[in-house]
């Protein structure tokens, strides 16, 4: 498969930004300065980036409680996200949304979502808009293996098929819903669920950017061509707890160390592109350095930014038409 150099560079930068953003949040959250809950996407980077590499600003995505990676992959500004997570007035939602409600409608990022299974029905609405407006857009819902059991998700698969919507359902299967293994909680298979609605099904290894890119490309092309929805089942792993502060007593000893050593999508990407000289080490190192600076600057700016004022409270509660 041929992928243009600028897409490769952009995708690596995006994955590296997500990784550094999350690793830094892990450290900062422990200081107690960040309000609310934080769910890290670390380890799952290739999924959001491999999917969003096929999308433009006209396309829409709905995310989950684990949404930072989807936001970054869709192009949301990192400094605005960091400020949002710190609850500052300079945040993308003016500090009133926090980690689980980051949205930027100008980029088609419809929002992270604290409601498990909240994204799939949202993208049915977005996909219906794309279809009626004939803007050639596709709507993508990211949702977890846990969310795949929600009635809202199953209803959305049905509705999207019945209305032949330009929608893609990306099931990010990290093997756990909170502390419950999907081997215990998910009956049957995602493939069978797609088949139950007559929906085309694609599957890939989420630790391999190229596998995600290829499978997502097919699923999105199918939907964009007016053929109706598709499901993409991505097998991946989260490296941190369900939320920051989770002691992860339900995970085997050495499970995460093995993931970091042997299944790191960033390491895999570097190996693949340098082995066949698609990209060289020095351009990747340059991206790493620039991302490090960007994250550092975002944290410094977020900490220095003002909190929302009481008069901000009712702003943006209702849309003004
Ligand atoms: C409707 C609803 N039910 C339950 C919860 C509590 N909850 C938050 S995250 C989560 C697990 C979700 O698992 P999964 O969909 O696999 O996503 P992951 O956390 O693994 O990314 C649950 C049960 C919720 N937020 N919303
Ligand atoms: Mg899960």
UniProtKB/TrEMBL annotation:
InterPro entries: DH_E1, PDH_E1_Alpha_Subunit, THDP-binding. The keyword Chaperone does not apply. GO terms for molecular function: pyruvate dehydrogenase (acetyl-transferring) activity. One of its GO terms (biological process) is pyruvate decarboxylation to acetyl-CoA. SUPFAM superfamilies: Thiamin diphosphate-binding fold (THDP-binding) (SSF52518). It comes from the Bacteria. Keywords: Oxidoreductase, Thiamine pyrophosphate. Its cofactor is thiamine diphosphate. Residues 14-311 form the Dehydrogenase E1 component domain. It catalyses: N(6)-[(R)-lipoyl]-L-lysyl-[protein] + pyruvate + H(+) = N(6)-[(R)-S(8)-acetyldihydrolipoyl]-L-lysyl-[protein] + CO2. Pfam families: E1_dh (PF00676). The pyruvate dehydrogenase complex catalyzes the overall conversion of pyruvate to acetyl-CoA and CO(2). It contains multiple copies of three enzymatic components: pyruvate dehydrogenase (E1), dihydrolipoamide acetyltransferase (E2) and lipoamide dehydrogenase (E3). This is Thiamine pyrophosphate-dependent dehydrogenase E1 component subunit alpha.
């Amino acid at each position: 498969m041929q992928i243009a150099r600028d897409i490769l560079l952009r995708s690596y930068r995006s994955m590296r930004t997500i990784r550094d953003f999350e690793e830094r949040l892990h450290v900062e959250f422990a200081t107690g300065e960040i309000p609310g809950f934080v769910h890290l996407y670390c380890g799952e980077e290739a999924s959001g980036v491999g999917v969003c590499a096929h999308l433009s600003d006209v396309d829409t995505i709905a995310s989950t409680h684990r949404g930072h990676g989807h936001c970054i992959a869709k192009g949301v500004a990192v400094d605005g996200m960091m400020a949002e997570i710190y609850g500052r007035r300079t945040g993308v939602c003016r500090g009133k949304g926090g980690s689980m409600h980051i949205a930027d409608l100008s980029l088609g990022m419809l929002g992270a979502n604290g409601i498990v299974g909240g994204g799939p029905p949202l993208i049915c609405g977005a996909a219906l808009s794309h279809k009626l407006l004939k803007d050639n857009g596709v709507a993508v819902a990211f949702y977890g293996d846990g969310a795949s059991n929600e009635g809202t998700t199953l209803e959305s698969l049905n509705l999207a098929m019945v209305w032949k919507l330009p929608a893609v359902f990306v099931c990010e299967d990290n093997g756990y819903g909170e502390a419950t293994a999907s081997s215990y909680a998910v009956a049957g298979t995602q493939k069978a669920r797609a088949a139950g609605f007559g929906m085309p099904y694609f599957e890939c290894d989420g630790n391999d950017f190229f596998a995600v890119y290829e499978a997502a490309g097919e699923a999105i092309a199918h939907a964009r061509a007016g053929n109706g929805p598709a499901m993409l089942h991505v097998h991946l792993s989260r490296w941190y707890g369900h939320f920051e502060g989770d002691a992860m007593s339900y995970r085997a000893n050495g499970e995460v160390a093995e993931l970091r050593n042997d299944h790191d999508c960033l390491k895999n990407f570097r190996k693949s592109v340098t082995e066949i000289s698609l990209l060289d080490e020095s351009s990747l190192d340059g991206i790493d350095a620039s991302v490090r600076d960007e994250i550092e600057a975002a944290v410094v700016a977020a900490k220095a930014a003002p909190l929302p004022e009481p008069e901000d409270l009712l702003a943006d509660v209702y849309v003004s038409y």
